Amino acid sequence: MNINKAFNFIAQNNINPEDVFALVDKIKDMDLTDENSIRKVIRDVYKLANRPIDKYQENQIVRDIMKNGVNDNLFNML
Length: 78
What we know:
Layout: H1 3-12, H2 17-27, H3 35-48, H4 55-68, H5 73-77
Helix pairs in contact: 2-3, 3-4
């Protein structure tokens, strides 16, 4: 994943870096092959960015992550 895209996403959405580190710390112990865990992470990311997410968009992101893993296309969906 392109780290610049991650940093740009954080800056553009005025996200507190400490909150990002807390989320990363939580994620590192999660089973990211589990659909429910992926959904939880997606909701947490949207919450950090103070953005709404509808069920359709969440489903698209979950399908993409489960099929392709986390990649640069993910930031285009956020």
